[in-house]
């Protein structure tokens, strides 16, 4: 069975959870098989997956970045990230269970006592981390910076050692919520990253309050206006270091002041009953998938 997930210019936390978590649940079963494609964490439901392969959907979402796939007999949809995804794919919203990163509850000892080293931590979206100055912003106001492209175990440790996680990265919120660490949603600077938050929240009796943040540098401001991709965007990013040097302190100070305001807002958590319900349904699907696919029986 082949494990598929998105990997951009740099590995990022939400997508890299796939290679870290799934072997802990199913064992050493993933290879380059051309028969079955396993789709887990991420907005990875699109139309250009190989038509001849069976696509096993296990908590994935539709992000709106591409056209939605046409679901035929080659799609084995076990459960979806949320109701927005179900609607986009023309499927029953009873398949909307939650983002499969919630299964971290089965492999991370989140209930054990964890020393809270950081009052607040901030995790930007990985694209914002790439083009922005968020480490400088956090250092200015004494908020712990979590690199969304950091090693999985280090990021998990940073989340668990925080009293509150402020996050522009959706999986910063999803993982914090699953591990019962209060979080504050920072409204993604890039509009294309916003809708999928509501998809995840739709199955957890959760209404997300998104707090606005400000671009941390000139490059981030420009990219937020024209989008992350395209010829002009690529040119701007090529000159990113020099652009971010223009009025560096002014951008960092304004972003820091706004982040301080965000830190004074009320953090969120999904209801305990909702997260337990989603987790149990996922565990039921894990068992059902093992029964249906013999290669998944070799759990470590």
Automatic annotation (TrEMBL):
<protein>
    <submittedName>
        <fullName>Succinoglycan biosynthesis protein ExoV</fullName>
    </submittedName>
</protein>
<dbReference type="Pfam" id="PF04230">
    <property type="entry name" value="PS_pyruv_trans"/>
</dbReference>
<feature type="domain" description="Polysaccharide pyruvyl transferase">
    <location>
        <begin position="52"/>
        <end position="185"/>
    </location>
</feature>
<dbReference type="InterPro" id="IPR007345">
    <property type="entry name" value="Polysacch_pyruvyl_Trfase"/>
</dbReference>
């Amino acid at each position: 069975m082949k494990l598929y997930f998105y990997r951009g210019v740099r590995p990022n936390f939400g997508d890299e959870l796939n290679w870290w978590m799934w072997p802990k649940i199913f064992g050493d079963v993933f290879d380059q098989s051309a028969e079955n494609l396993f789709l887990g964490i991420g907005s990875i439901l699109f139309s250009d997956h190989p038509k001849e392969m069976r696509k096993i959907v296990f908590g994935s979402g539709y992000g709106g970045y591409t056209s939605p796939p046409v679901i035929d007999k080659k799609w084995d949809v076990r459960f979806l990230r949320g109701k927005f995804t179900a609607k986009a794919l023309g499927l029953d919203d009873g398949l909307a269970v939650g983002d499969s990163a919630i299964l971290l509850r089965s492999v991370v000892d989140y209930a054990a006592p964890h020393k809270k080293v950081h009052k607040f931590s901030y995790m930007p979206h990985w694209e914002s981390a790439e083009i922005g100055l968020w480490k400088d912003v956090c250092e200015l106001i004494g908020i712990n910076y979590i690199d969304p492209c950091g090693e999985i175990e280090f990021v998990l440790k940073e989340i668990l050692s925080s009293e509150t996680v402020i996050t522009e990265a959706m999986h910063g919120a999803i993982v914090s919520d699953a591990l019962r660490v209060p979080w504050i949603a920072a409204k993604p600077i890039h509009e294309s990253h916003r809708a999928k938050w509501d998809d995840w929240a739709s199955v957890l009796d959760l209404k997300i309050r998104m707090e606005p943040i400000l671009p941390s540098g000139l490059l981030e401001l420009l990219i937020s206006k024209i989008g992350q991709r395209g010829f002009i965007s690529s040119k701007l990013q090529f000159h990113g270091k020099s652009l971010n040097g223009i009025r560096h302190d002014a951008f960092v100070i304004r972003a820091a002041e706004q982040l301080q305001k965000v830190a004074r807002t009320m953090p969120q958590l999904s209801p305990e009953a909702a997260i337990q319900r989603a987790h149990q349904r996922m565990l039921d699907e894990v068992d059902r998938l093992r029964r249906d696919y013999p290669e998944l029986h070799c759990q470590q």
